Amino acid sequence: MPSNKSVSDAPITQFINCRILRDNELQREDLWVREGRILDPEKLFFDEQGYADKRVDCEGSIIAPGFIDVQINGGYGIDFSQASENVSDGVSFVAKKILEHGVTSFCPTLVTSPPEVYHKVTVSFLSVLPQVKVHDGGPHGAGVLGFHLEGPFISAEKKGAHPEKYLRTFKSGGLEDLMEVYGSLDDVAIVTLAPELPGSQSVVRELSRRGITVSLGHSAADLSQAEEAVQHGATFITHLFNAMLPFHHRDPGIVGLLTSDRIPAGRTVYYGMIADGIHTNPAALRIAHRAHPSGLVLVTDAITAMGLPPGRHTLGQQVIEIQGLHAYVAGTKTLSGSIATMDMCVRHFKQASGCSVQEALEAASLHPAQLLGISHKKGKLDYGSDAGQNVENDFLPFKLPKISVYYPESQRAH
Amino acid sequence: MRLVILDDYDLASEWAAKYIRNRIVQFKPSADRFFTLGLPTGSTPYGCYQKLIEYYRHGDISFKYVKTFNMDEYVGLPRAHPESYHSYMWNNFFKHIDIDPANAHILDGNAQNLEEECQAYEQKIAEAGGIELFVGGIGPDGHIAFNEPGSSLVSRTRVKTLAKDTIVANARFFGNDLSKVPTMALTVGVGTVMDAKEVMILITGAHKAFALYKAIEEGVNHMWTVSAFQQHPRTIFVCDEDATLELRVKTVKYFKVMTINKTPKFVWWLK
Lengths: 414, 271
What we know:
The structure holds two protein chains of two kinds.
Chain A (H helix, E strand, L loop, with lengths): L11 E5 L2 E4 L2 E3 L3 E4 L2 E2 L2 H7 L6 E4 L4 E4 L1 E6 L1 E2 L2 E2 L7 H12 L4 E8 L4 H4 L24 E2 L2 E4 L24 H8 L5 E6 L6 H10 L3 E4 L6 H10 L3 E2 L32 E5 L7 H10 L4 E4 L11 E5 L2 E6 L2 E4 L12 H12 L3 H8 L1 H6 L17 E4 L10 E4 L8
Chain B lengths: L1 E5 L2 H19 L7 E5 L6 H12 L8 E5 L1 E3 L10 H8 L11 E2 L8 H14 L5 E4 L21 E4 L2 H7 L13 E4 L2 H5 L3 E6 L5 H8 L18 E6 L8 H13 L10
Parallel strand pairs in B: 1-10, 2-3, 2-6, 3-5, 6-9, 9-10
Antiparallel strand pairs in B: 4-8, 7-8
Helix pairs in contact in B: 1-2
């Protein structure tokens, strides 16, 4: 008799023989799940006189909260920024595939694009934004937490690979510009902008007021401009070191936010890190980590070519060549973007920084959840949290951990 | 009485656990015939619980047809508090074994009506057919459960105010802050434990030596409530060398010889 049904009829699963990431440490405890939530087994025992319907033997693996990728542009041949008839199919396809990397929630990222991509212009379903809603994950695929709109309000000087002709400034005074470009902010989780653009302060304030995370990136701002943006509500830095002024000892620029003393009390500035070993030199990764370990958020910034086999691929207007972890513009040595997967990033981060397994896992789960203000539900294995979690084998540097993702009804998703 | 003396805490815990294991196995409990076990909390029985969990994991014992009744619980302490006896039993025993939660009984110190709770508990014990084996400990003031000095030796389950000695002894679990220690508890009575078919008292450590002396070498006295078990037909006191420090050499020598001859053997025919 698993439960006297005083609280719920739903089946209860108990994961045994595992180590769980809880309270910043790996504890030798069982994990109990019911109806997509982590359960308190003591309450279950005494209040409901219940026990597990089903036991899963983890054979000593680690159970970590599902990874959250807050910057991913596509993958497996799908490009989120490409207007098409069935954007949501593409998003769902990628959502399903990234489960294999342990990602259970993500923010599909749109790079600087023409307005049609953002709006619903006519009844032809070409626009992207309105087609994808925030929704929870499950065995069908990782959950969508909301879009990450990277641009177009960014610096021309630091545009990187973004198309210059679609860059915008705040002409009409902030909110009007946003609505003109994006149309709707309903399912938006993060907006990346350059704070040195005149008029950005009111935009930062307005977005923060609406609960949207404001991120600084693709910007030539100096430290005081960046600090001002943080004071108005910005809390994130898009792919630290890339597409911003380099650290300078008399003006550290955006990088200086990691150790700035002008951050409002009680606030943490988080920063995205592409830890694929290519976009950031391991020494730079270590400097950032040591300066501000609790703010480090691992992101993939993966492009369309992620997940595709080595060799040449034609993606939209470009021909990309994949060699190992590098994706080059075909025939050149110019990097065309990141094709690392989240589990590779976690592993590389741990190896390069020498941090503990807990810290590496938290950088991909707890910290992004804290960034987005959802850590009461996600990013943790506390009682009551959502239960999309990873099961990983031991985290030895040279061994590829096997990742299985379990979902509420304990059907193995992958 | 039997007085079983082992060299140290670990051996005493092991002996006690083996005894419990053997009793349950030999009883052959089933769905129609449960084995009822009375259980203590505290630092003394901790090693015994560890051993029982080990035997369960090894497949030597199952708690599927065992009903347990704990001796006591604090009044007014939230059940989820890490120092409540519910938490102790869950973390140190129940969560590691296969007992059916409906068969694990602990007094509810947050019940609306404490007297009714106590009476209901006595009722549950009676309905379960009485206790086969009641395992207990002893306080430095010689109390069994929370039957503090002065408790009636024929008492039943009831609310008790804790003695100063007990509060001081428990302060270490509440950050050494006396104001945080609960002052009242629900406890089975001396009479309740006396009703059990067999009683096993665990006593380890030099700080319990004087209480053990008072309990077995002096008379039956309500100031040292464990002494009541001198009048029970089947009592075993399991202790380590340190706990015997206040006993007469004659007593210790007599019982030591007996222990060597009668250590429970490993029950291998189980499998």
